[in-house]
From TrEMBL:
UniProt domain HTH luxR-type: residue ranges: 867-932
Top-level taxonomy: Bacteria, Bacillati, Actinomycetota, Actinomycetes, Kitasatosporales
Keyword ATP-binding: yes
PROSITE patterns: HTH_LUXR_2 (PS50043)
Listed InterPro entries: AAA_16 (IPR041664), P-loop_NTPase (IPR027417), Sig_transdc_resp-reg_C-effctor (IPR016032), Tscrpt_reg_LuxR_C (IPR000792), WH-like_DNA-bd_sf (IPR036388)
UniProt protein name: AAA family ATPase
Origin: domain of life: Bacteria
Keyword terms: ATP-binding, Nucleotide-binding
Amino acid sequence: MLLERGTEFTAAGDALRAAAGGRASCLLLTGPVGTGRSALLRALPGPADGEGVRVLRAHAAPMEADFAFGVAHQLFDSLRSRAPREESERWQDDPRLTAIDRAGGTTSDAAEEWAVLEGLRSLLADIGAEAPLLILVDDLQWADTPSLRWLAHLVARPHGLRAAVVGTLRDGDPGGRRPAVLDLLDAGPRVLRPAALTPDATRTLVLERFGTPGDEEFTAACHDATGGNPLLLTSLLDRMAADGDEPTAAHAGRAYTLRPPLLTERLADCLRAQSRPVRHLAEALAALGGHAGPDLAAELAGLDPWEADGALADLHRLGLLTGPGEPRFVHRAVQDAVAASTTPDERREQHEVAVDLLHRHGAPAALIAERLVESATAPRPWAAAILREAAETALRAGDPETAARALRRALQDTPEPGPDRARLLADLAAAVRDTDAAACERHVTQAVSLLSDPTERALAALRIPPAFLGALPAPAIALLRRTAGELGPAALLKGTAREAALRLEARLRHAGREDPAELGASVLRLRSMGEEPALRSAGERELAAVLLYAAAVSGALTAAEAARLGHRILEHEPAAPDRTHSALPLVVLALCGADSVDAVSSWLTAGHRLRAPSPARGDGLVACAVDHAERALTLLAQGRLTQAREHAERVVVDRPGEPEGEGSAAFAVVLAAVALEVRDPAFSERVLALGGRCRAPGLVTTSMLGLLEASLEAGRGDWADALETVLSCGRQLAASGWHSSALFPWRPWAVSLHHRLGDSGAARALADEEHARAERWGAPAVLGRALRLKGRLYGGGRGEALLTEAVTVLRGSANRLELARALQELGRRLGGGPRAEAALREAGELAVACGVPRLVKRAGREELGAPGVPAAVLTPAERRVVALVGRGLTNQNIARELGVSPRAVEKHLTNSYRKLGIRGRAELAAGQCGPALGMTG
């Protein structure tokens, strides 16, 4: 509560030093609830000013406002309690002090009152002659009137007093408008308003409460949710720390929803002390959701315009409402505090009136729905439509939880079976499909049973998540098949029915992708659609995406054909920010396998810019995770491992809760692909743990996780077990007709393991098979890799020729890492000379740029004199941090030098270590990467 209060402490110290010099003064600290005025008063005097100072303290309270000279008594009592006994007894009997008991503040004789006030002033002058006085009065708005007159008298006649008066006054409180308080303000004290805390102070508080720096997303959310108000912020952080929350991005959303009980109690006490109009307006705002127009709130509160304006101004001054415009409570705890000051019956009655008032005035559906959900109001004939509209809005905004709450309330008001209830069930299925797949399927099944129209039944069935990378449960497939049969083939339908039929066909064909016959039928269906399938509608594009994926995994197309169709689909498909339940991730996979990712990268970037949901608030988390997964995949296809891993890590951060349904299977596939290249055992173990919790993972997920398990076995030296695991994955994929090595690289792993185990015949046979399939597919990355593997197996001129060809092919690939590997193999095979040196030098530069410094070491850069890490590998911020480490600065010093948080410095260093291929600060400070970064030491 005392952070960033240097101005106030300085002003108090100046006043006290002036008092020591014989110049009395007064300082008033004002502001809304929670700005730390009382904490400031408790901290005075500071260590530098407290020696030789006599302190008088008083704390005014509403219950003592009628006790005449009550504050004055507190001040002198606090002084006597600290004074020597003889001195205290002398003051006790001093007639100037006992006079306040006789006056009582009720006399109308001005001369008598003047005498009392002058007597107290002269008593202070006598006491202050021995040592300067610091008079501290908290909550002056509640002080008794005679004491306020006396304080105003002191401020108006400061000469001859060695005293500094420091008081606090809460903005917006009715007591602050009493004539005695206004007289004190008119006496000319210096007024200071402690400001809200800055984001830097919030970071400091987070570190203090949790013992570790907070993620930027967490810190920003805490600051945003509280507006930097010290009371709100400290209450929030104390509760989160007590609940065991970590200051990470994953817990950032809690800042907006948590309601600490102690904070609620403190705010409720504040509200109880307010005038009737202020309390009634606050209750009306709470009933209206805390964010309705002032006119509507005034009508509900029963206030006339003049009363409403005054009450609204007081709530703003109290700091309970946000800035100008539509009045909103600064925090949910304020709404809880309002509720705590009313009875349940009063709240229920007010909510009933509020809901009807909002509807009559045409308020937004989301606001009315929120009131309906949070209150036990009676059913209304128009409520279901409002709730459904609000749910649709919430889903578009990436907030399925709010949508689900609205739809559940609508279902309560629609108990009769029929189409209306069926549509609500279908909408609820869409709202919960990311978090509760089983409930989604249950709601869809119920909805379909209540509908009679085949098109509506089909549209309801399509609410089941598509499981494009996972496996649909058998009951869900049966339901899709039954509704598709009732609807009929798309060729015989038009409009919405045709779209539904196309989408059902896509789902069913994809559901059968692990059956070689069904996979072959999908390929034939794609060929029957001609060289340029129609892509005008979303249903046509979904079907084309599914068929493209089937052709890609089976190897029925060439990479060029797959890329052409994939690009056409993206050209027709808007770059929407939420692609969670579309077939577009299949297109991304196919294009990455085809080594054609430039268009994908730009398309993903466009969709990312359109994203409205904020992961820091907990909105659209699955959509954010899907975006990071797709970006990781495209970066992996370019060989940019560092960036791919960064996005993969964000998948784990943004993915909500325990994995459920198709989404977790898709994430596991991408994470496994990244882990296979990164080869970090800890990261691989995390991915396997995630994959092990997937619901209905499907062949693609189990195969990728199997390959990842094999990589860990190989890393432990269990080469035979690793080979058996890889071959098992290969057999499963081959049995399903999945021959694509671009998407499922089991043969390259098997080739390497056979070779390591000394079975060169098996290694060459598999390498030849991989080469043949790579030539048919035609993607440079896959073909270059196959040539490199064969080049490694053959010696002499043939091996050198294969490696040279691999380098030539890979120069046309987007995958820079594969080119680095081929150059490394070629340079080592050449053994020495300018050509070998050039190949190894280029391999080292490419490998470091891709974030794989281990290849640099294998390339022998020290012996070849190859440059260290290119400066372009690090971001400008990372380069500045690394340069300061080279100068010997600590993280704290670097943070101050750059004007950032220590947490930001730590993140930059962690990324730099990974990119530079070093273990930590010692290697960095030793200058091992100095020449590349322009460092001299």
